[in-house]
Amino acid sequence: MNAEIEKHREAAEKGDAEAQGQIGFAYLLGPHEPEHLEEAVKWFHKAAEQNGPKALQMLAICYHLGIGVPEDATEAIKYLHKAAELGDAEAQCTLGGHYYFGIGVPQDETEAIKWLRKAEEQKWEPATPLLKEITNGSAKKEIEAADKMKEMLKKFADAAEQGLDEVQYQLGKYYCAVMNTPFGMHTNTVEGVKWYRNAAELGHAGAQYELGQLYRYGTRGGVPKDDEEAVKWFRKAAEQEHVEAQFRLGMCYFKGRGVAQDEAAATEWFRKAAEQDYREAQYELGKCYVEGVGVPQDDAEATKWLEKVIEDDDEFDPVQRRAKGLLEKIKERQTSSEPQS
């Protein structure tokens, strides 16, 4: 991520919109820490101020899904509209879908057809079949299916009200998930948060972890950013052996977020998750042994954990790439410490 950012930084700081967008993408695709996502949005804003259509679309997605900024459907549609008005065919097609399904805007078939036709005129291929589905009425089946889903969810909600924590958790998961239609994405995280909280308070580890994540980012479902609340819920889940919560709690201790920094405690939580084969925890634990942070420096122990990370050898996995880099560092250190003949 850092190399990609530095490659574009000089041009971006001189006002190059494409370079600014590339930095935004680098932050977006890097580690999903809140500060990285906020940086992504910052650079997309810079590019969007120069009417970069892709940056405008990325801002629409970020505001729509609460990535790096609080969810805001009005802002999302504003940026999507601007990209469409600038003539971007993909944005025009997406906007048409939003109008047809009423995602972030009132349902309006006339507006939907208008924007889809604009996209089709530019030979944006996805627009043509979607436009046909709307004009011949077959797309209404998707709306009917959505209505049936609402009825089914009502039955689930009735069951969840009886205190069934797994049903409440699954409802939270459904509403907070990014649901794709052929025309765009939508969520209902406010409803999702309600069900996650209900399940979490009943002791459901998965819901406790998800609630911790919502407090960690502070951008979805009206949940404020609150590191201490995040730690509280991560701990509850981690104590029930929830592996992702164990890792996340370790990171909170490691960085001193929501809890006093304690590298030894961090490594213990990393170990618990690593023993459950959680790759990121294995990497962080190995790194701690490489650097002697929270544990005594120990190359043999570091190698043991880092080799677990790369067992399936996926060259596209960023965690594996970082693990390989540390293993090389260990080899170099061992080679340089060998006595010269």
Question: Which features would summarize this protein structure in a list?
Answer:
single chain, 341 residues, mainly alpha, Serine Threonine Protein Phosphatase 5, Tetratricopeptide repeat, 18 helices, 2 strands, 2% strand
- Major sheet details: 2 strands, antiparallel
Number of domains in the coordinates? 3
- What proportion of the residues form beta strands (DSSP E)? under 5%
Instruction: Detail the poorly predicted runs.
Output: none
- Terminal CA distance reads 40 Å
Number of E strands: 2
Strand order of the largest sheet: 1-2
Rg is: 24 Å
Order of helices and strands: HHHHHHHHHHEEHHHHHHHH
Q: Please, what is the CATH homologous superfamily of the largest domain?
A: Tetratricopeptide repeat domain
What would you say about this model in short?
The chain is an all-alpha fold and 341 residues long. Helices cover 71% and strands 2% of the residues.
Account of the protein in words:
The chain is mainly alpha-helical and 341 residues long. The chain has 3 domains: 2-143, Serine Threonine Protein Phosphatase 5, Tetratricopeptide repeat; 146-240, Tetratricopeptide repeat domain (Serine Threonine Protein Phosphatase 5, Tetratricopeptide repeat, Alpha Horseshoe), CATH 1.25.40; 246-341, Tetratricopeptide repeat domain (Serine Threonine Protein Phosphatase 5, Tetratricopeptide repeat, Alpha Horseshoe), CATH 1.25.40.10. 71% of the residues lie in helices and 2% in strands. The protein is built from 18 helices and 2 strands. It has a two-stranded antiparallel ribbon with strand order 1-2. Helix 16 runs antiparallel to helix 17 (299-309). The longest helix has 21 residues, at 140-160. It is globular, with a radius of gyration of 24 Å. The mean pLDDT is 91.
